[in-house]
Amino acid sequence: MNQELNIKDFGNWIIDLKSRIHEAQRKVAFSINSQLIELYWDIGKSVAEKQEKANWGSNFIERVATELKHEFPQIKGFSRRNLYAMSQWYKFYSQKYQFVPQPVAQIPWSHNRLIISKVKNIDEAEFYCLKTIENGWDRDTLEIQITKKLFEKAGKAIHNFGNTLPASQSKLVEQTLKDPYNFDFLGLEDDALEKAIEDELAKHITEFLLELGKGFAFLGRQFKIEISENDYFIDMLFYHVELRCYVVIELKSGKFKPEFAGKLNFYLSAIDSQLRKTNDNPSIGILLCKSKDRIEVEYALRDINKPMGISEYRLTDAIPENFKTKLPSIEEIESELENKIEKNRR
């Protein structure tokens, strides 16, 4: 008995020890990255000031790069291109800050370079820095979120969270929702029906979870609930691990109608009664529709007692009609490729 108890104690102890070592590694990595970013801030500031005040010619940065690489051959990052990026990066944030902002110092330099190359507004740049830290995004994921304009969509859904949730939770839930959601990864046309959209979302669940954001766990589609001997089927059911609540998602292929909110309210009541545990927060609903009228939505949500948000979705990225006529057809592209292949053979 004692031997078994000792083995169990050892197992718990070693797990705790490993956890502490991993945490120490993360702190060391974070410290090194912060120091590197602060160094780049100082270099960027110095280079930017000399560019502005000293008359050292157009090859000034190239000369600096040569000197630094000769003095520190073991350190990468002193190329002409990188030094120029440091200067531009410093100029960007120094419009608002005297020292490097904390969120900026917490993300890798490659992420910082990407952000300032694609974002022109400091508040938006800080938003992506914070989201990178919060979600642990790699560079590719960060680029996807910038391309999909997450900053413009986050917290834009019409909702009733302020009236149906505690203030502390309402803001968190509001920031979780987007408007619109981008489903172009499904490869469907704009006139796709609800079932087809739902089928493809289930098939592309990884991309769907990425579009929804951090914290969503997929529990099932056409999730059956029984009420008074009748069966009802929820389009998609999730659990949000950070908000600690169930999330009901309903899809509508047309324009929002007030009765959609009533049905979603009904589903939320059922989930709260049948699935919600003591430690769970109130379930929330997300209604995704092709289009909506803001005033109609606000009226429909006014007296709804369950928390829900209404967002639109996009199946394809819209191309202006006057631009479509300038795009080559598939036949023209294939013909051009065949001509090039034929020329290469000659």
Can you offer a commentary on this structure?
This protein has 16 helices and seven strands. 57% of the residues lie in helices and 15% in strands. The protein is globular, with a radius of gyration of 27 Å. A hairpin with a 4-residue loop joins strand 4 and strand 5. With 346 residues, it is an alpha/beta fold. The chain folds into two domains: 146 residues, no CATH class; 169 residues, 3-Layer(aba) Sandwich (Trna Endonuclease, Chain: A, domain 1). 26% of the residues are buried. Strands 1, 2, 3, 4, 5, 6 and 7 form a seven-stranded mixed sheet that branches.
- Domain module tally: 2
Which bin fits the share of residues in helices? 55-70%
Shape: globular
Q: What radius of gyration results from the CA coordinates?
A: 27 Å
- Report the strand count: 7
Low-confidence stretches: 318-327
Which structural category do the helix and sheet elements fall into? alpha/beta
Per DSSP, the total helix count is: 16
**Run of helices and strands:** HHHHHHHHEHHEHHEEEHEHEHH
Distance between the termini: 84 Å
Strand content: 15-25%
Calculate the mean pLDDT score and round it: 83
CATH architecture of the largest domain: 3-Layer(aba) Sandwich
Main pleated-sheet profile: 7 strands, mixed
CATH topological fold name of the largest domain: Trna Endonuclease, Chain: A, domain 1
CATH class of the largest domain equals Alpha Beta
